[in-house]
Write a structure and sequence with these properties.
Number of domains of chain A: 2
Shape of chain A: globular
Number of helices of chain A: 15
Strand order of the largest sheet of chain A: 2-8-7-6-5-3-4
Strand content of chain A: 5-15%
Largest sheet of chain A: 7 strands, mixed
CATH architecture of the largest domain in chain A: 3-Layer(aba) Sandwich
Radius of gyration of chain A: 21 Å
CATH superfamily of the largest domain in chain A: Type I PLP-dependent aspartate aminotransferase-like (Major domain)
Order of helices and strands of chain A: HHEHHHEHEHEHEHEHEEHHHEEHEEEH
Structural class of chain A: alpha/beta
Oligomer: homodimer
CATH class of the largest domain in chain A: Alpha Beta
């Protein structure tokens, strides 16, 4: 039967990260049971917290008849209220339930937000390296063009006015109207938080160029470094500009399988449009109720987040030490589940093709999946992201394998 | 800030059924507590089964660590397998997990299916009266045009070849390319099942005109009349044509708040496209696990469905008797949660404006929300859909109020 043109376009969709994820899932490493299996350190998931969450998740959800029937399709009111309280604490900024839309994951949130914000073919500036999934989220259904603003290793991957301006100029050359700027803070894949000074510069830039600000703060509560995280929700209000804040339960709560995301927006019309679209992308009341049970237990949340931070900090220190011992240079991690590391001295040539070759070498020889910088639009080849929020035995085995795989290659001086 | 044209279009969206639903939800009738509240019989939900489901829903879901992480975004394999077993039994046709896509409700399923099947502006024939939400599902994001095939009260609302042909001719006059035909069986709002003969005629018509067949069988297990339901999944296979079957947990399982729907398709490319789109519209693994726990308990399912049928049958008989006693003619109900009734003798004029006037009169004077036939594209004014799957006290009160509201009006001979 007939397949539409828009449908046919999707058949060519290629998501390397997702593909490798499922390859590893079919034959996963386990210390004793399957010592030759794949180790997947390419997916940003927190595998350190299930024991804490388990009793909460497996208690009776306490569903009432009302939960089995229709409720607001952009999130039950009682759930949005509890989430507003949580996000107010997290961002140090008063967030209200009426400005929240809950939907089936942060990809769904971005899809809807882009629908509301951009005509097809228009663009959004994203400082690079950036989360690889943004390309998919922006391009697939809503046809919005991500415009990378390339930060530089020589400048410590800082977002500067010059970097943003270059992106705007590039978009202009491609005749793409830019509608907004998307910041990920804490950042994926860098694992760092942005200083207040940088964020203020971004706000000023957005204001000057009439760009909407979208702030993906999915890792807000997974910060363990010396610097604390500052929410753009607070700073934008102080500056008198609007904000579109994306949050979700995948990262801070280790619940990527729950597919629950949220948008907080100060723009009344964006809110109305996204509420309309949320009709197609709702979160089950059952899942909302389980998450509500977690959110309303303040003592549990305090314990959970402090323990989570300790575990992430310990795991981060462990992997940095191991990698450095193996001669691999790492970018300091302050937040998130990843270490951004420099393997450029093992590239056969200073190119992204050579980076992909190195990626495949590590995947095939070492059976470890890490992510090559090019999928994050890294400006220079040779950087990789490794997700370390796993048990030490696994990290130990993985780094040994990577080290061995690299050892089989000739080191080139960069 | 800028709002896109496609976003702005949504701001004009108007869904009368959804709006009235939430109006009633704000001030709901309760026999003793709020005797003057609104009674909402406009929403197709089953309010008769929560007591049976409650122990299942409120048991520990038994979530394991894997459920908290990413799984197939078109439904966990183990869940799709269990659902395939259930649907094979329901449709008397072998349904396999690899041809199933699970997503956040049947509106999401239709949205994705239409994306894959039609270019924007193309059309789908739907025998009318039809579920009012189809207009919203088809038009909102994917811009597909529903083409009503008007059945006639004089011919017992039968779908005939003539009726389908007229729709095709109408589409041609509007220069709309028709890609498929969408059948709801058991039917909403009629509450009837289609004979095998009618379904065979539809298949032949689709084949002759190269139309894809979409069969919404959401009420497959809510059948209690003398005639049994026949799935188009079985008949299409026998006829050697493809099928796109839409199912969900909202109706047969009384779980509209769980927003879990599924597509079974025999078309490999449609499957691939919808799998891609399902990335944005997944169902939480937590909800899938709760539904899995229900689906894998065969003894429970047998008890649940037989009890559900008994309760629906009793409630249907009760409402028909009450309505007929009040002088209201009803169309026989064999399935579903609704009675299709004829209030045309109370219309002030034989027009849809008068029908809306009567609707508002009953809503404002009687504080009962029922649905006027025009939202279902009824061919003739004066028909209404009343959802009766509620406790007898509520139905009793509602029919008394409707009767009183009608009594205040002059009857016109039709």
């Amino acid at each position: 039967m007939y397949i539409s043109k828009r449908g046919t376009k999707l058949l060519e969709n290629y998501q390397p990260l997702v593909k490798a994820h499922f390859l590893c899932a079919e034959n996963p490493w386990a210390a004793n049971v399957n010592p030759d299996g794949y180790i997947n350190l390419g997916t940003a998931e927190n595998h350190l917290v299930f024991d804490i969450l388990k009793p909460k998740l497996n208690a009776s959800p306490g569903l009432e008849e009302s939960h089995t029937h229709y409720a607001d399709l952009h999130g039950m009111k009682v759930f949005r209220e509890q989430l507003a309280t949580f996000l107010s604490g997290t961002t140090s900024h008063q967030i209200t339930a009426d400005k929240l839309v809950v939907a089936s994951g942060s990809s769904a949130i971005l899809d809807m937000l882009m629908y509301a914000m951009c005509e097809p073919g228009e663009g959004i500036i994203i400082p690079a390296p950036y989360y690889a999934g943004f390309d998919h989220d922006l391009k697939t259904r809503v046809n919005v063009e991500p415009i990378p603003a390339y930060t530089e290793v020589e400048n410590d991957f800082k977002i500067t006015q010059e970097v943003l301006l270059q992106a705007l100029i590039q978009a202009g050359k491609r005749k793409i109207k830019v509608r907004g700027i998307l910041i990920t803070n804490p950042n994926n894949p860098l694992g760092s938080v942005y200083s207040e000074q940088t964020l203020q510069m971004i706000i000023a830039f957005a204001k000057e160029n009439k760009l909407s600000i979208i702030s993906d703060e999915l890792y807000a509560r997974s910060v363990f470094g010396k610097r604390s995280y500052t929410s753009l929700a607070r700073l934008t209000e102080e500056a008198g500009v609007g904000i579109n804040l994306v949050y979700g339960f995948a990262k801070d709560f280790g619940l990527s399988g729950f597919k629950a995301g949220a948008l907080y927006t100060t723009d009344e019309k964006i809110l109305q449009v996204v509420q309309q679209l949320a009709y197609f992308m709702p979160v089950s009341n059952a899942t909302q109720k389980i998450l509500y049970n977690i959110l309303q237990d303040e003592a549990f949340l305090n314990y959970y987040f402090s323990e989570n931070q300790l575990r992430l900090a310990a795991a981060s220190e462990f992997v940095h030490t191991k990698l450095n011992e193996a001669g691999i240079a790492t970018y300091p991690t302050e937040a998130g589940f990843f270490v951004w590391m420099n393997l450029s001295k093992w590239l056969s040539a200073y190119s992204f093709d050579a980076e992909m070759e190195l990626y495949n070498h590590i995947l095939e020889t070492g059976k470890v999946n890490i992510s090559p910088g090019q999928v994050f639009h890294s400006a220079t080849p040779g950087w990789f992201r490794l997700c370390y929020a796993r048990k030490p035995e696994m990290i130990n085995e993985a780094v040994n394998r990577i080290s061995e795989a690299l050892g089989a290659l000739k080191q080139v001086s960069v």
